[in-house]
Amino acid sequence: MKKLKLTAYLSVIILVISCRNNDQADSPLLGTWKAAKTMTVSGNNGVILLQNSLTGCESNTTYQFWSNGDFEYNQYCSSPSVRETGTFSYGESTKVITFYITSGGGNQQGSETLYALTESEMQIITGKTDYDNDGVLDTSIIIYIRQ
């Protein structure tokens, strides 16, 4: 009887771990993304108001997402550079990436809202301002290219 209980217990643990590790297995985020450009989109009509290619340290900023639900973020424009690691989840209907950051000895939660996600581009909303002074908030975006 004890062997049966132990076998059942171990089976449940293995099932839970294997399901957790595959939670993001089909996520469209998987892979490495490198910062490429910024743009501002009109809140009034969706027209691109401004677009700039990133250069220098900004162009070396990366996200990496793995199928086991882990992520790594690297940003080199501050001193010291920023490296965050942990786990992530992605809500396709909400277009929100939730980060559970475990690097640096603490547990923090953060999120990013996507403007768009395609096979080759991940567009992250960085803010809303009335760039063109038309009384409607415009969307600032940073675009990452899949590597």
Automatic annotation (TrEMBL):
PROSITE patterns, from UniProt? PROKAR_LIPOPROTEIN
Keywords recorded for this protein, A-Z: Signal
User: Pfam families per the record?
Assistant: Lipocalin_4
Q: Which InterPro entries match?
A: Lipocalin-like
Q: Does the keyword Oxidoreductase apply?
A: no
List each copy of the Lipocalin-like domain by range: 29-124
Q: Which residues form the signal peptide?
A: 1-25
Q: Does the keyword Signal apply?
A: yes
- Name of the protein in question: Lipocalin-like domain-containing protein
- Where is the organism placed in the taxonomic lineage, from the top? Bacteria, Pseudomonadati, Bacteroidota, Flavobacteriia, Flavobacteriales
